[in-house]
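[09:14] KT: can someone run the structure on this one? pasting the chain below
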Amino acid sequence: MRKSSSSRRWLQRQCKDHFVKQAQNSHYRSRARFKLLDIQKRDKLIKPGMCVIDLGCTPGGWSELAIELVGEQGQVIAVDLCEMQAIDGVLFKQGDFRDPAFIAELIDMLQARHVDVVLSDMAPNFMGVRSVDQQRCIELSEQALYFASCLLTSDGAFLTKTFQGEGFEDLLHLLKKTFKKIVIRKPTASRAQSREVYLLARGRLDSG
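[09:31] RB: done, structure tokens below
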């Protein structure tokens, strides 16, 4: 079966990508690791002993780094609709983070432990219609934000991938209503031509 021109372009980018090669050479799960690592170096997001939830974790690049950063006293819970190959020290829970029943099960799994960081490197399956894909990306970030606001400790942090375009300013406004401090990050490993950015929110505001 012939590959589409967009698929061929993607394969060509992958073959030339420095971060893809570095991930392969170091036996990391994905190049996405370097995006989180860039943010970690700049913002000191994850610290030893923390509890971290990684939404949309598969194939595990972020969870793999997070468990190294939290150490033996910390906890990383990886969540995805799809299966993920096991990572030593990481607890994996398969299911839909938007489902209230799933959230309740996750709270039981935490055993009263506070959640310090919620990570989301999720993106929907793109349909190729820019306006529709953009809307779905924003909605997914909003859903991850709701999840984070339910579970995060008051001084916790939320990091989400999103894309600049329609709805971006609305998402930013919503984050500002929910957290004390918001910064926009464009990691070195994010391709320059991509509209992809990461929003880092810290210090949950009292909804009351």
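[09:33] KT: thanks! The chain has one domain: 31-204.
[09:34] RB: yep, looked fine to me
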